[in-house]
Amino acid sequence: MLFPASANINDIFDSTTKDMDAFRLLTRSTKLKPVSSATDSRLPSTGKAANPQLFRTAESDNLESAKNGKKRKRGAAVQEDEEDVPDLDFFSSNKRPAASVTETAAATVGDDKKVSAQDVASDDEDSMDEVERRTILNSHKIKVTDMRDLEEIQAEPTSTKDSKKKKKKSKKEEAPTLSKKEQKRARRLFPEPLLNFKELRSKYKISSRLAENVAEQGFTVPTEVQLGTLPLLLGESSEPDLLVVAPTGSGKTLSFLIPVINKIVRHHHSNPDEHGILSLVVAPTRELASQIVNEGRKLVAGTGVKITLMRKGMRVGDDSGADVLDENSEESSGSQDEDAEDKPAKERANIPVTKSDILVTTPLMLVNALSANRTTTMATLPLVRSLVMDEADVLLDPLFREQTLDIWKACSHPDLRVGLWSATMGSNIEDLTKSTIKERLEDLGQKPSEPHALLRLVVGLKDSAIPNIDHKLVYAATEQGKLMGLRQLLRPAAASASDIRLRPPFLIFTQTIPRAVALHSELKYDIPAEAGGSSRIAVLHSDLSDGQRSDIMRDFRKGEIWILVTTDLLARGVDFRGINGVVNYDIPNSAAVYVHRVGRTGRAGREGGIAVTYYTKEDIPYVKSIANIIDVSEKLRGGEEGDKSIQKWLLDALPNLSKNSKKDMKRHGVKARQTQRLTDKEDDGKGARGMRISTKSGFERRLENKKKGAIAASRNRKAAAAASGNVSDTGSWNGLDD
Ligand SMILES: Nc1ncnc2c1ncn2[C@@H]1O[C@H](COP(=O)(O)OP(=O)(O)OP(=O)(O)O)[C@@H](O)[C@H]1O
Fold it and tell me: Which regions span the lipid bilayer (predicted)?
């Protein structure tokens, strides 16, 4: 079945399920009762969240609508606008509300100063008192903390601080005697929250074209992370360095892209002659980097800002006479990367240097470009004013740390601001951030033109899974048990036995690439031809070429692939809007990885996502941290004690893992699963056999092997007989049939 390239997975599912129910086809059963529309609407792939926020209370709802109402009264046009905003529909073609088009049609690139009458807000009327700010921030579970040493906070000139900070200043003499609790309280901030997206223009005066592009996305309510961070990054006081910990799928991308783009629009106005990379966005995988570029392209349209995906072979930072790429006209297709890589050196020298304003990259690719594959010292990026680290905890984890810190240090402008974003962040990352900021400034020997803070904003509970998905932790005893469980999910006619109904599209995570490959080949023929057969299931991992990876991502997004078997390559950041769930075929290496993997579903507040985690005997020592995450997530969700999937007895019974074993597990995963022997020949019989991904028992395999051996021996005999000229044409014995 072919769908237009613009179609998304949800459209496909809607249209697919009209004429053929994918779920039913997968069951190979015609007896299955049609899934009720009530169940259907609970599926994230068909549903949409009327409000993408995860945490709110009636008190803040009332306060916010009172504040929003007050603003509406100020200009009739604004009121019409808001009433005209269509229902939130992530899968529509994102038609802009008519009123908003007229309002902004005259907008030209970067006409920041042109703010229409109804846009202008009286700041006095708008600003909230501290009680209101506290109420709103607390009900959305947003916590903002100044991370600097107390002395540093107190040494800051009063003019740049709000009244809250003035109070701290007066406490200066008492500082040494402050208790830990008091120090914590002194660091706590209650900045003004963003009440609606219109304020971006009216109050924070962002570029009108950018505001228009945001409006085109059709979002009506800011998520918590947007509500908390956008005022901090767009407000009048000096832009801070910012650490953000906010749930998966909560819209962090928009939160960091809007301020980055707006800053560049302003920069173009004040420094029309300065061209080059002004902002860097670093992400751990190519898939995520490419997704950020796609999101960015929607936001930069018509602003004069260019955003580019870093590619192998691309030259950065040296602009001697090279042509400038028209970055926004390019597709971010993987095959282009390969093209660049495969070009001979002579041709490569002609590859234009990127003069894009925003470069989105994985760490290694940029480090290689800046150091000629580590053969020279790192070149600097002197113009970069904003460095965004998406999935910062993994970027600063030992795997990428050296490369990320090299990039950070290569950004040599004294006014650099950093943003570190993730759904999980250990305190070691916070310490590393603090020390790197200090070291970098010392190395530079220059001071930033104005003092600024390092703030941390946390939404919800740090390092927890989103509360809007159902977690199923399933004991499968053995590898065979896991495979049987998974097959039940694929053939949900049998689902009554396990009470889990997971409809495609969904992701399946394994621990290693060979296991993903093995699982894919095991399952590939489970999908009936009427449902599209083996083309509906694919495997994605980092051993595939960039082109293959992009193609699979595209087909999954388009709905041509329904089930994607993958590794932790896709655990973080990637946003498949309407996937119904996630299967952890192999348990994740850490609680943080669990949070990220399961966060591929339930995005933007959607209900109905399911996260199934199978565990075996070998996994028992490692399951407690996952069970704890589920427990906390269920507590955040509220509801009856009996509804909880993790019972107290289980938590008590599961063993705790020592610090060293945790480290070991994080680095290597479950040891027995590290090598997946794919053939009997490779199988040394020492442990790996039990970990094999196959439904066949050892006995069956041995029989099969014997049979194969007999066939081979028979062929050899025949060949030998033919060679000696005495084979009978009658073929009285043809060996065993396969
Ligand atoms: N205010 C909003 N209202 C509704 N949907 C939104 C809003 N902001 C962003 N979204 C959508 O939410 C989805 C998730 O956003 P995004 O990918 O930025 O999440 P994230 O916080 O970066 O998640 P992760 O931690 O997994 O990387 C996207 O499809 C995005 O378009």
Answer: none
Would you state the torsion angle of the CA atoms of residues 98, 101, 102, 107, taken in this order, to the nearest 10 degrees? 170
Atom in ligand 1 nearest the alpha carbon of residue 222: 1
Given pLDDT bands bounded at 50, 70 and 90, which one contains residue 65?
A: confident
CATH code matching the domain that covers 198-317+352-459, chosen among 3.40.50.300, 1.20.1250.20, 3.40.1050.10, 3.40.449.10: 3.40.50.300
Q: Is residue 99 scored above 50 in pLDDT? A: no
Do the domains at 198-317+352-459 and 469-673 have one common CATH topology?
Answer: yes
460 in ligand 1 pocket by Cβ < 6 Å? no
User: Beta strand 506-509 with 241-245: parallel, antiparallel or unpaired?
Assistant: unpaired
Gap between the Cα atoms of 692 and 236, Å rounded: 59
CA of 575 to the centre of ligand 1 (A): 8
pLDDT at position 62: 80
Higher pLDDT: 68 or 417? It is 417
Look at the block and give the residue holding tokens 């006095």.
124
CB of 298 shorter than 6 A to ligand 1: no
Question: Ligand 1 mean position to 346 CA, how many Å?
Answer: 42
For the chain, domain boundaries:
198-317+352-459, 469-673
pLDDT at 498: 57
Tell me which residue has its CA closest to atom 27 in ligand 1. 573
Tell which one of 91, 223, 258, 421 to mutate to probe ligand 1, the residue whose CB is within 8 A of the most ligand atoms.
223
Ligand 1 pocket residue status of 603, Cβ below 6 Å: yes
Question: Quick check: CB of 249 below 6 Å from ligand 1?
Answer: yes
**Length, in residues, of the chain:** 738
More confident residue, 16 or 609: 609
The pTM assigned to this predicted structure is 0.80
Nearest CA to ligand 1 atom 1: 222
Residue 551 CA to ligand 1 centre (angstroms):
23
Tell me the per-residue pLDDT of 672-682, one tens digit each, with 9 for 90 and over.
888 654 444 44
- pLDDT, one tens digit per residue, over 222-281 is 999 999 999 999 998 899 999 999 999 999 999 999 999 999 999 999 999 888 999 999
Distance 664 CA to ligand 1 centre (A): 32
> Is ligand 1 within 6 A of the CB of residue 532?
no
pLDDT at 26 over 70: no
Q: 603-638: per-residue pLDDT in tens?
A: 999 998 999 999 999 999 999 999 999 999 998 887
Residue with CA closest to ligand 1 atom 20: 249
67/65 Cα distance (integer angstroms): 5
- Helices 286-300 and 252-270 pack at an angle, to 10 degrees, of 50
Average pLDDT, the chain: 78
- The CATH code for residues 469-673 is 3.40.50.300
**Of all residues in the chain, what percent carry a pLDDT higher than 90?**
50
* pLDDT tens-digit series, residues 485-522: 999 888 765 554 457 788 899 999 999 999 999 999 99
- The torsion angles phi and psi of 315, rounded to 5 degrees, stand at -95, 140
User: Do 573 and 291 meet the contact criterion of CB atoms below 8 Å apart?
Assistant: yes
State the distance from the centre of ligand 1 to the C-alpha of 603, rounded, in angstroms.
7
Q: In angstroms, what is the span from residue 247 Cα to ligand 1's centroid?
A: 10
Q: Which residue pairs, CB below 8 angstroms and at least 24 apart, start in 676-684?
A: 676/512, 676/514, 676/515, 676/518, 678/514, 678/517, 678/518, 680/705
| CA-nearest residue, atom 10 of ligand 1 | 251
Distance CA 628, CA 668 (A): 21
